Amino acid sequence: MSKKLISLLLAVLLVFSMVGFAAAEEPVEIIMYLWGNECSQNQHVLDVLNEKMVADLGCYLTVKYLPWDVKAVQYPLIFTSGEEFDLAYVYASGSPNIQSLAEAGAIIPMDEYLADCPAILEGITDWAPTSYQGSIYAVPCMSLVCNPKGYAYRTDLSEIEVTSWETMEAYMADVKANTDIYPINGSASDGYTLYQMFTDSTKGWIAAPGIDNGSVYLVGESLENYTTILSPVFTDEFVDFCKLMKSWADQGFWSTDILAATNSAKDNMNNGISAGFLSHMADWTGNYGNVQANLGGVKTNWWSPAVDNDKVINGTGAEDATGISATSKHPALAAKVIEKLLTDEEYWMLFQNGIEGEQYTIVDGNVVGIEGADFGFCGWAFSNDAFVRPQASEDPIRYEYKAEWAKTSHTKPYVGFNLDTTNISTELSAISDVNAELGIQLLLGKAGDDVEGAVERYREQLKLAGIDTVIEEVQRQLTEWAANR
Q1: Residue 404 domain-assigned (yes or no)
Q2: Domain presence at residue 10
Q3: What's the pLDDT score for residue 485?
């Protein structure tokens, strides 16, 4: 073989090796699903974050969103469709929850990959709530998670202070009579928040595993008797509550088309067309800046039956967690992405607050949003109290509540309990359909004039769907688990 031919072959081999090397160095895409609606500046912030991620990890992050109005339907589907993605928001009390996703093989054990994530292992010591059959299936956030629901309302529209169901009704009646603003101008999801407030209105009931806590869920009898499970739907209290909701609907406290509406009451309040919205404390206090900007500094207040009844529950970080999809092609990298977003302050500030000088500035230690900025990833699964700085856009009372609840909240008694849904998956699906069809109508006073008859039909459909089987199975597993704690 001539020297010329040998040189040519060597040159060709060098080109091929360089192409192969370049391909190997191509950044890997990590796809993550989050709840919420995409803000206009999210992608720009993500581009900046990805520059760091490519340099540090050799990968970049793509975020897909599950908008609020379709989340309930689409969230379970991402785990059953076979779609290839890497990370997703997962939680302990929903349907599907962490354990049911693990049992179904939709998310994978993370122990092997977390061994290479020392910052996560150092920061989190209690893995029971996100484990299943001895393996870790999700990384919890690193924050106190207390989310009692309540009514946030404008104080300039009525002098009535909301401190009870009765005063809430009086406030809304006053607003309705003297303004052209709906007291709660929201969407169907408000019905489920009202249900949460209803269950919080008793001295005993606490949200229990089994049925999605964003729906008409089961309850434990009390913190002390938490293994005794029941459905509030089969109580006289539920009938009375549905009658109250029918009365509120008839008085025009929300729009007649609320079941089909898509805009949230919070957005409508910020736009001056709702007197208030139903949500948890952090959402109310976090909306402070929007109120200042859009409503000229109007004062708002918030009432929560859970606070009144000493029923603020610390759900632990398992309520806001991140799991790795079984369809992920890069699970080790996915775990490192979680570590960066959760435990690296520079990444955390970018993901939670945006780019300093564009989305926010720091003034006297407070994060101050820049006017016109439209940013937010709904990244609760990466909350870390160690990095949190007060936001100028937040009502300062938030930190008073958090300090109080750090001392007085009750630890969720179901932490560490992993419900095996193998024997009740069919029933849970059927119950979800009944709740979405009949339950939400009752909770928003849209089931007709005969409330008692509508409740009875609802109960019959739940029984046909298998709610007794679900209650029996949940209680059986809970009793066995509690006996061996």
Answers
A1: no
A2: no
A3: 64
